[in-house]
Structures are given as C-alpha cells and as structure tokens.
Design brief:
The protein is an alpha/beta fold and about 240 residues long. It contains seven helices and 13 strands. The radius of gyration is 17 Å and the shape is globular.
Length: about 240
C-alpha cells in the first residue's frame, strides 16, 4: 500500500486502510489546523504509526497534539505510543484498555492466547504479524475521558466527539467536523467482532441513518473506502450491499 495521505476536505486527510483484510490495518483520520494535528485512531502497531508520522512530514503537518480513540480494539490503539500525545476516549474505553495494558504482551503470550481462545485466532495472528517487537511496547491509556460528548476547539476547527456505542464495541465514539462536513465513525455501525458474530448479524442500518446529519458530506469508517453522502445514505437504507 502506498504510504500517501488522501485529502477528504479542507483540514482533513486519511492515512488509508490496508486493503488486505489479513493485515487488519484501519483508516487513520488526520485533522490539521494551524498549530495542531489530531489523529482519529492511532494505527495498529508502532510500525504503522511511524509510517503515518513520515506521511505527516510530507504535508508539513504540525506535531500531533491529540489522539482520539474511536474504540478500544487493538488495531485502532496499538500505535499510540509513537506519537507522545494525550489520548481522548470514552470512559468505557479507558476501563477496557486498563485490562489490555495489564497483560504481559509478548509473542509467547499471544500464542498462549490463541490456545486459550481459538475463536480469536485470526485476530491474534494479525496482531502478532503487526507488532514485530513487544520489548518496549506499551498501551497508551486515555488521559481525557468523557461519558456522552465533548467538543474540541483547535484554531478555527471544531471537533464534536460523541459516544454512540453499538454492537461492535460498546465504547464506540464518532468524530464530527461540521465546518469540514466530515464524519469519522470508526467501526460503530459494524456487526460484532468476527469471533462473536452470528450468521444474521449485519451493519446497524438504524444507527447509520441517525449518523447522517445535514451537515455531513463524507463518512469515513474504520475499514472501508470513504463514503460520499449519497452512497452512505443508500447503504444505510439497504439499497446497496455492505
């Protein structure tokens, strides 16, 4: 995958997902103001995060000042140690990451987890491929937590961060930029993770319809291509296949 950013709107880019599903490398949102760079999610490992840092240099972005976790799943948070910036997340996300941070991470421990939880093997093996060196690895816990909604004003850019929950992760939040008309959703409307998924689980179309306010033209989820307004609306109404 080319290590290049894709601009979505003024002030807004993404470092695009890896199209290989076995890599479990999601979209990372990038919001650049006069003096700040905000990331929506942190990448799936330090190596991924370092590639994002190089891409930020290419557009002469300011130093990363904040990271927002859309939820606590490893592929969205394991890169955060590279950025050295405070993290914003839902209070449930922090509680879940306290448990994650307490685990004795190593390649041997991941193999033990596969034996204990064979239903999670695909995700754990993707994690093992992503994190090459566990020796200095650490999970960065959120410093700023909230229960419902928080607003962040940086220069002339407003970010609205709102807890929406969902079947995929109860701590899921969205990040809305009304002026730029962009919405980051993470995985909030996705079905449960694969090891918990039932055959009839699908996207939460009801949630999707509530997310598409009049001030949104672009929707960026965790693992797909950006949706323009018309495409996302058709998907939410069941007129397109996910």
């Amino acid at each position: 995958m080319p290590d290049t950013l894709r601009q979505i709107a003024p002030n807004v880019w993404i470092y695009p997902r890896d199209e290989d599903p076995n890599r479990t490398q999601p979209n990372v949102g990038i919001i650049v103001t006069g003096q700040h760079t905000v990331l929506v999610d942190a990448g799936n490992c330090p190596r991924h995060a370092r590639r994002i840092m190089i891409a930020l240099d290419d557009i002469e972005a300011p130093a990363v000042s904040h990271v927002i976790y859309t939820h606590s799943h490893w592929d969205h948070v394991f890169g955060a140690m590279v950025f050295g910036a405070p993290v914003i997340a839902h209070e449930t996300c922090r509680r879940q990451l306290l448990e994650t941070a307490a685990k004795p991470w190593s390649h041997a421990y991941v193999q033990e987890e596969i034996l204990r939880f064979p239903q999670q093997e695909a995700s754990l093996r993707a994690m093992a491929r992503a994190v090459e060196d566990w020796r200095n690895f650490r999970v960065v816990l959120p410093e700023v937590v909230f229960s419902k909604q928080i607003r962040l004003y940086l220069d002339d850019v407003l970010l609205e961060i709102e807890h929406v929950g969902g079947e995929h992760a109860p701590d899921s939040v969205i990040v809305r930029l009304p002026k730029q008309r962009v919405l980051f959703t993470g995985d909030c409307f996705y079905p449960p993770p694969s090891y918990l998924r039932k055959p009839d689980d699908h996207f939460d179309f009801g949630m999707m319809q509530t997310l598409l306010r009049d001030d949104i033209d672009w929707v960026i989820d965790g693992h797909g291509d950006p949706y323009d307004r018309a495409t996302f609306s058709a998907l939410a109404q069941g007129k397109l296949n996910p």
